[in-house]
Amino acid sequence: MESWRYGACGLLVLALSACAAEAPQALGTLEYERISLPAPAAERIVAIEVREGEAVKAGQLLLRLDDDTLGPSTRALQAQAEGRRSALQELEAGPREEAIAAARARLTAAQARAREAGAYYARLQPLGERQLVAAADVDRARAVAADAGAQVRAARATLDELEHGTRSEQVEQGEAALRAAQAQAAAHEVVLDKLDVVAPRAGRVDALPYELGDQAPVGAPLAILLVGDAPHARVYVPEPIRAGVQVGDAAKVFVDGREQALQGRVRMIRSEPSFTPYYALVGEDAARLSYLAEVELTGEDASGLPAGLPVRVEFDVR
After folding, report:
1. pLDDT at residue 5 is higher than 60
2. What pLDDT was estimated at residue 50?
3. Which residues contact 38 (CB under 8 A, 6 or more apart)?
């Protein structure tokens, strides 16, 4: 009986020593970098050129949105910008010679009418003083002469304005109006170009949340791509070994279905824990904390592994 007890104690000691010798580890899954392509406008999907799981190249067309609404509005803004450009060119060129010649002619005609009105008033004024004509006729002649003089001054001011050309402030206003119109047209052109949704990088189509004919809201993901030559291990580091795991440390990544471990290196580890609430960070509850980390796979044999596989990562904690 005693020998059985001693034997059982020995096995327990061996088991505990084996557990103590086991390398610190963390569990997680294989993940790729994800790129989400949002909807640039709330337009209907008119074409889907790829399937989920298909490998795509950078710049390859994934799907196309309807441009029946955005296309005409963009062209209208482009035409408006061209009109602003023409107006600015007209301001910069200044008045035409024909307009200046016409203004000179109007000034000459106004001066002639003013001389005639002034001469008539000069003849009529002495007669009025001798009461040979009615006072009303004299007043009327005086008003006509004054009006003719005002017309001369107005015609001269118009000619001076044309001869001095366009003011710099008017040119600046025209330039500002042109820039505003061009900016509006450019913004619509960018959105119009994005109606053809293309892959920004080479990768694999992970999800196409919407079907042909759907109208996704602005900002909704139209396609999700997995990019990168190899996945990385996304694991949760337990609190007891967190102090011994640092960015740059080597690690071994064990994937279900592969006997040999993959070589990796810690590239990121969060400073804030998860799972355990902040009010339970004492005693035994603190051991339940975990820290999100990413382990980059450095070996060439990691390429082609699918995302989502469960992994176990062992760290060389000193």
Report:
1. no
2. 93
3. 218, 219, 220, 221, 222
Q: Does this model's pTM top 0.85?
A: no
Q: Which residues pair with 47 in a beta bridge?
A: 64
Tokens 């803004």: give the residue: 77
Helix (H, G, I), strand (E, B) or coil at 67: coil
Helices and strands (H, E) in the chain, number of each type: 6, 11
Average pLDDT, the chain: 81
Nearest Cα neighbor of 183 from 83, 87, 85, 81 is 81
Torsion angle defined by CA atoms of residues 185, 189, 190 and 194, in that order, rounded to the nearest 10 degrees: 150
Query: Distance (Å, rounded) from C-alpha 54 to C-alpha 225?
Result: 10
Short-list 201, 236, 271, 254, CA closest to 32: 201
82/184 Cα distance (integer angstroms): 12
- Give residue 154's pLDDT band: very low, low, confident or very high (50, 70, 90): confident
Query: What's the confidence (pLDDT) of residue 260?
Result: 85
